[in-house]
Amino acid sequence: MDYRNAFAISATGMTVEKTRLDTTAVNLANVHSTRGPDGKLFQPLTVRVAEGQAAFAAGFERLAGSHQLRGARVLAIEPTAVAPHKVYEPGNPDADERGYVALPGVNQVTEMVNLAGALRAYEANVVAMNAAKTMALKALELGGGQ
């Protein structure tokens, strides 16, 4: 059995989850920013992911070794179309004529749930990779004793 596919799938999963963690960190870091470096209001970001697995029938081809397995991959990191929320801060230099400041529409609770989910998915990929490593080592032990 070729364990490289199991390692590759877990590695791509960890890459996707790391991207989700980084994106969540950027969103949380900008929750109170009124302007970005370009002078525009920060738009919360989201990660768009594509599965690497094809149709169910292709799974049989992969078992026969005629098709390489691929894991998930990041398609894009895109700004979301979330409306900004207004906070009354008349002393803020970015306040409008009524004293309201537009802040990014980052929902801290949603971001923390995304953070927890990405962390758990990353951990699951680590566990899967360690299980594949253990199976490969056991197979080597069994094969080496003859």
Brief characterization of the structure:
Pfam families: Flg_bbr_C. The chain is α+β, with helices and mostly antiparallel strands and 146 residues long.
Furnish the topology, listing elements before pairings.
Blueprint lengths: L3 H26 L15 E6 L5 H8 L9 E7 L5 E4 L11 E4 L4 H37 L2
Model description:
This protein is of the alpha+beta class and 146 residues long. The chain has one domain. Helices cover 49% and strands 14% of the residues. It is built from three helices and four strands; from the N terminus they run αβαβββα. It has helices at residues 4-29, 56-63, 108-144; strands at residues 45-50, 73-79, 85-88, 100-103. The strands form two sheets. A two-stranded antiparallel sheet has the order 1-2. Helix 1 packs antiparallel against helix 3. The model has no long low-confidence stretch (mean pLDDT 84).
Which blocks of ≥5 consecutive residues have pLDDT under 50?
Answer: none
Give the helix level as a range of percent: 40-55%
Classify the secondary structure makeup into a structural class.
Answer: alpha+beta
The end-to-end span amounts to 18 Å
Alpha carbon gyration radius = 22 Å
Number of helices: 3
Proportion in β-strands: 5-15%
What is the average per-residue confidence, as pLDDT, rounded to a whole number? 84
Properties at a glance:
146 residues; 49% helix; alpha+beta; two-stranded antiparallel ribbon; single chain; two-stranded antiparallel sheet
